[in-house]
Write a structure and sequence with these properties.
With about 325 residues, the chain is of the alpha/beta class. The protein has 12 helices and 10 strands. The chain folds into 2 domains: about 30-120 and about 260-320, Periplasmic binding protein-like II (D-Maltodextrin-Binding Protein, domain 2), CATH 3.40.190.10; about 120-255, 3-Layer(aba) Sandwich (D-Maltodextrin-Binding Protein, domain 2), CATH 3.40.190.10. Helix content is about 40%, strand content about 20%.
Length: about 325
């Protein structure tokens, strides 16, 4: 009887296995579902994040990646650490804070790991020409968009304002607005100035200058670099926004900061390796989506200090 029962159970198990073959995705991390945290829908993070998702879907068998619009860098990192997303595009300064347990993460260092340093953001500080604003210091008392809550724009913007001798929390009317909301408000006169940190050209800023017909202008910011460096060494570098980028009468003296692609340290090393490899194997596909991807350089990509590379990415860089 015992032998007959054992045989029956074995047969039932065999039939069940035949009826329900093993799902290949069960062997993949998160069953093959990957979510990439990007940024505002008219910003470069979103455009390139969607492009990166497309590369993953095409070249990593079994994986289905989607690009999620978000508030930006800090929002992405918070979602990464809570498990809502798997890959985050972020300002390097925000990731540095998370790793060190400073800023938003004061006293709570996070297990963030980098896949790559990517392109640079450019700081855009723009005012209406009829507002009588010619410097960041003259934003005092004005209505200014500081970007989405939890964005790299907000982080860098407040540091620039402080470098100009203002308290970003009390000396101006700082408004939390997405990029589409911001450009609409500055065109209508609802705000007098805006700050944006993003790759060039940022689609929303292209549209702003096309629609403004000379009613908005860039404010000078390179003069603030020395003050920023005193508190945040090596955060920003001098750069130029070529006039052709936004169809301007002359080049704009600007400041830049670095971006990273980051994950949590619990991502399997093989997946981190493959994600990094896809980024560089098909980089030209990203360039065709947005020219900011030209700034992604394999020889610079491993320079993510102080945020450590993921072990899988580290293996990729050491093998090429």
């Amino acid at each position: 009887m015992k032998r007959r029962a054992l045989l029956a159970a074995s047969a039932a198990g065999f039939l069940a296995a035949c009826a329900a073959p093993e799902d290949p995705s069960s062997k993949l991390w998160h069953s093959g579902e990957l979510v990439i945290g990007t940024g505002n829908t008219t910003g470069v993070f979103y455009v390139l994040g969607a492009g990166y998702a497309g590369l993953i879907n095409k070249h990593l068998s079994g994986y289905d990646a989607t690009a999620a619009p978000t508030g930006g860098s800090i929002d992405n990192l918070q979602r990464l650490f809570s498990g809502d997303i798997d890959i985050a595009l972020t300002l390097a300064a925000a990731a540095d804070d998370a790793f060190a347990g400073t800023g938003t993460w004061s006293g709570r260092p996070q297990t963030v790991r980098a896949l790559a340093r990517t392109y640079n953001n450019f700081e855009h500080v723009i005012a209406r020409t009829d507002a009588g604003i010619d410097s960041v210091a003259e934003l005092k008392g004005r209505r200014v968009s500081l970007g989405s809550p939890g964005s790299g724009t907000e982080l860098i913007g407040k540091r620039l304002i402080a470098a100009a001798g203002l308290d970003p929390n009390t000396d101006l009317v700082g408004l939390s607005m997405s990029l589409p909301q911001t450009t609409a408000a500055i065109l209508s006169g609802g705000i007098e100035a805006m700050i944006w940190s993003g790759g060039i050209p940022t689609p929303g800023i292209v549209d702003l200058f096309a629609q403004a017909h000379g009613q908005v202008k860039f404010l000078p910011i390179q003069e603030l670099l020395a003050k920023v460096d005193q508190k945040y060494p090596n955060l920003l570098d001098k750069a130029v926004i070529p006039k052709a980028v936004y169809n301007l009468p002359e080049d704009v003296a600007a400041l830049t900061d670095a971006n990273l692609i980051v994950v949590n340290d619990n991502m399997p090393a093989d997946l981190a390796y493959q994600l990094t490899k896809v980024l560089f194997d098909y980089q030209q596909d990203l360039v065709s989506i947005h020219p900011a991807a030209n700034g992604i350089k394999r020889e610079l990509a491993s320079d993510t200090d102080p945020v450590p590379l993921h072990s899988g990415s580290q293996h990729y860089y050491s093998s090429v």
